[in-house]
Amino acid sequence: MSTTDTFGGPLKEEGVYIADRGHGPSAMGDDLHRFFNLTLTLATTEFKLRYFGSVLGYFWSLMKPVLFFGVLYVVWSVVFKLGKGVPHYPAYLLTAVMLWTFFVEATSNSVQCLLAREGLLRKMRFPRMVIPLSVALVALFNLGMNFIAVFVFAVASGVTPRASWLELPLLIALLATLAVGTGMLLSVLYVRFRDIQPIWEIVSQILFYGSPVIWTAYVLAKEHLHLLRFAMCSPIAAILTQMGHAFVDPSLGSASDYIGGAARLLIPLAIIALVFGIGLWFFNREAPRIAENI
Amino acid sequence: MTTSTERLERRSEPVASQPEDKSGQRRPSAVSVANVSKAFQLPHQQYHTLKERTLHPFRSRTFDVLQAVDHVSCEIEEGEFFGIVGRNGSGKSTLLKCIAGIYGIDAGGLRVRGRLSPFIELGVGFNTDLTARDNVMINAIMLGLTRRQARERFDAIIEFAELKEFLDLKLKNYSSGMHVRLAFAVAIQVDAEILLIDEVLAVGDAAFQQKCFDEFHRLKKAGRTIVFVTHDMSSVQRFCDRAMLLDKGRMVELGDPAMIARRYNELNFGRAVHQVDEEPDRPDGSRPNIREADIVDAWFEDVAGERIASVAHGDPCCACMEVHFNEALIDPIFGVTLRNEVGHTVFATTTALDHGPTGDFRAGENTIVRMRFENWLTASRYNLTPSIALNGRGDNAIDLREDVATLVVHGGHFTGGVANFPHGFEVEHT
C-alpha cells in the first residue's frame, strides 16, 4: 500500500464546501465534470445491470415495446382499421411506441428513484440531481438500443432513408428535456407524497391516449382539425407528429401544418421549457432536505 | 480566498477558541463549524399522500421541533484527530452529517476545506445488486475521484478489505461483515483529505479493527484530518488529539480527550443527580427522585484488612468501596475499574460477571464491598473507579466515582508491560 499522496497535494481552494442557511447539499454541485462523470457512471452500471443481468437481457428489454406494438397493431390496425390509408402506418406505430416507451420509462422510473438510492443519499455528499438524470439517461440508452430495431423494421417495410432523418436527434432531445423536467418534479414530489406513484400511472395513461401513438394527426385532420390544433399544443403530440413527417413519410404532414403555422410551435416548445424550468426549480429547492425527508 | 469564504469570515458570530500550535501560529483549519444549528420537524400527523393533503387542507399541521444540533462551534485543524462524543441522541451523528454535506443547516456557518470521505451508519451506500467491483468504482467516483484515479486506487481498496476472491460477487451475497469491511476500505482508501468516521468499532472482527486503527495512525502521520464519532471513551483517549462532548445538541466541553472522557462519564452517571434538579416538587407530594445509593468511600486494603496506599508486586490485595443505600435495592451490581497512570483501563469487573446476585439491601443500610485480586500488576500507579448499577444489564448506573483511590505497586522486574502474571518458559530442542 502506497503511503505517498497520489493526488492530494496542497488543498485547493475549489475543494471548499460551504454551508450556511440556504446553502447546503445542492442539486447540481459546483464541479460540472464530476457531475457528468457521476451521472454517466450511475447510468452505465444500471444499464449494464439491465442488459447483462440476465442471459437474454437485450432480448427482454426489446420484447416489451415490441409486444406492446404487436398488440396495438393487431387491435387498432387489423381489427379497427385505424391505420387505413395512412402511409407506412406500422412503421409510424412502432417508432411512436418506442418514443412513448422512452418517455414513460424515464418518468415512471424517476418517481421512486430517490427512495431507491436512499443509501447513497443518506451517506454521501454528491449533487442530488445526478439521480433523476441518470434514470433518464438509462432510458435514453434503451431508446438507442430499441432504435436499432426501428431502423431495421422501417427500412424493411419500405421507408426510404432521407436527410430529414437528421431531425430525429433534435426531436429526441426535446422529448428527453421534457422527460427530465417531469422526472425531477416527480422524484422530489414522491419524497413528500407517496401517492404520486398511482397518480402518475393514471396521468400517463391519459397522456398515452391523448398523444398520436395509435391514432395519427393525418387521420384526425380530415374531420376534427380544430381539436387537432388544440392537441398539437401538447409537446408529445407535436414531437410524435413531426417524427412521422421527418422519419416515416413526408406525406404524413408536419407538426407546423397541423397546429396552423410554425409560429404556433412555440406553444409546445414553451411547455417543454416551462416543465423543465419548474422541475429544475423545485428540485433545487428541495435538494438540501432530500436526505432528511426521505 | 474566494468570495464565498470571505462571506463566512465576515460573520460576526463567535467562534470557538482556535487551536494554536507551539509557535503560537494558527494552523489552517480543515473544518470550521460556527454556531451551527440543525433542527428536525417531527409532524404530529404524517401526511404521506397528496390525497390526504387535498382532502384535509385545513387540518392543522402541527409539529414538534427536535433541536438536534444547537449552536455548536469548533475549529478542527488540518491533520488533527478530532473526537465527537456523546450519548445516543446527543446530536453527534447529525453534526457529522452536516459536516459531510448530507444535511443542510438551519443557522450558522460551516466550511470544509479539502476532499472529504464520510463513513456513516456503517456504510457508503452500496447497491446490493451490483458486484463489489462496480460498487467500489461508483463509490470512489462519488467521493470525488476521476475514473482513472478510481481504477488506480481499486487494488488498494480490495486488498485492504481482504476480498480479492469475492470481487465479482454481487453484494447481496456478501455477509454483513464483508459488506462493512468493503465500505470502510473504500472510505479510508480514496485518499481524502478529511475522513469522517461514525462508530467504527462495529466494523469487522478484532483483527480487522486493529488494521483500521493502524491505518488511522498512518493517515494521521500523512497529515490527514480525521473526525471520529464514538461513545467508546478508550478509543477517544487512544487516538484523538482533542475531543468535543455533546449533550442534547449542545456542546458541553471541548478539549483534552482524557478530560472529555471523564466529563462523559460524569454526564452519563450523573443522570440521577440531574433529575433532582429537574423535578424539585412532585404533584403527588412524594419525595423527589434521589439517588438510590451513594458510594461514600473507596480504598485499597491488604489481606489483613489494613488500608494501604502501596503494595509490593505479587502481594494479594483488595479494592473496596462503602455504599450507603437510600432506598431498598435487590441485587444491585457493584463494579470495579482499575486504570493506570496514562488512563488505560487495565482491569474491570462487576459482580454480575463474577459473583452473581448480591442480595437484598434495606434503605439506610451501609455495605462494604471488597474485590480481592492477585496483584499481577507491574510497578506503577493505579486508580480505582468504583461503581454501582441497578440490577439488569449494568447500564443503569446509580453512582460512579472516577479515580477516587490510588494504589502504587512497587517491586518486580521492569518489563514494560502493564501486567506480569505467573509464567514459565520451556526451551526445547527438536
Description:
The complex is a heterodimer of chains A (294) and B (430). Chain A contains 14 helices and 1 strand. Chain A is an all-alpha fold. Chain A has helices at 32-52, 57-79, 89-111, 113-116, 118-123, 130-156, 167-192, 196-210, 217-223, 225-231, 235-248, 255-259, 266-286, 290-293; one strand at residues 16-20. Chain B has 430 residues and is α+β, with helices and mostly antiparallel strands. Chain B has 11 helices and 21 strands. In chain B, the strands form 5 sheets. Chain B has a 6-stranded mixed beta sheet, with helices on both faces. In chain B, strands 12, 15, 16, 19, 20 and 21 form a 6-stranded mixed beta sheet that branches. In chain B, α4 (132-142) packs parallel to α6 and α8 (233-239) packs antiparallel against α9 (257-269). Mean pLDDT of chain B is 80; it is low at 1-24 and 271-288. The chains are: A mainly alpha (294), B alpha+beta (430). β1 (16-20) of chain A pairs antiparallel with β4 of chain B.
Which labels suit this protein?
heterodimer, A: about 290 residues, mainly alpha, about 0% strand, disordered N terminus, B: six-stranded mixed β-sheet, six-stranded mixed β-sheet
Q: Short description, anyone?
A:
The complex is a heterodimer of chains A (294) and B (430). In chain A, 69% of the residues lie in helices and 2% in strands. With 294 residues, chain A is mostly helical.
Outline the low-pLDDT stretches of chain B.
Answer: 1-24, 271-288
The largest sheet of chain B, given as strand count, sense and whether it forms a barrel, is: 6 strands, mixed
Instruction: Kindly report the spatial arrangement of strands forming the biggest sheet of chain B.
Output: 5-6-7-3-8-9
Shape type of chain A: globular
Determine the strand fraction of chain B and express it as a percent band. 25-35%
Tell me the radius of gyration of chain A. 22 Å
**Beta-strand proportion of chain A:** under 5%
Number of helices of chain B: 11
Structural class of chain B: alpha+beta
Q: Which oligomerization state do the chains in this entry correspond to? A: heterodimer
| Distance N to C terminus of chain B | 71 Å
